[in-house]
Amino acid sequence: ETGVTQSPTHLIKTRGQQVTLRCSSQSGHNTVSWYQQALGQGPQFIFQYYREEENGRGNFPPRFSGLQFPNYSSELNVNALELDDSALYLCASSLAGTGNTIYFGEGSWLTVV
Amino acid sequence: SQQGEEDPQALSIQEGENATMNCSYKTSINNLQWYRQNSGRGLVHLILIRSNEREKHSGRLRVTLDTSKKSSSLLITASRAADTASYFCATAPNAGGTSYGKLTFGQGTILTVHP
Asked: Residue A95 — very low, low, confident or very high, per pLDDT cuts 50/70/90?
């Protein structure tokens, strides 16, 4: 039990649609990051939020966007869904600063048809 | 892109045996973390080792880090069927500033422990 909760656990969307995934960070954690994990691959960093601002981004297009709220919960939004967006989306939280453990939620499985 | 490479990609052992998984990476790191993932589920944090540490233990887990070779190993002793999972190493950059939440993962090692 990491204290990081994500919703929904599974969802199916049609190509071209938009999706919002939600995450509640572990209590006291002020940094949230999002990862995409395709089947059979390791997770890939999408972006990170600290104090409600994006402050680090991986190699993902602008149609991947996010929000962090004052209570440190977060959303991942993906517009104009493509078939390749089908993956497990993982939220992770931590305290700001190097050397801190990063805790992951159970993930949201997104299938784009 | 994946920074690390894990070796082997798959490992099959009998209960009670030891399992060793290796991880190599390419750039300077602040720390390296090992995670476990049961099929289709989230990542469970196992252990964090900092760049100035060489070895760390946690229960049946032993992690080593060799920054000169840019490699790490995870040893699980006296394995159990419940250890069956995928294991990932992930590196945190030594870039300071705002990069602390960005982990770079390897492809993972699939461990199967037969009862």
From this structure: confident
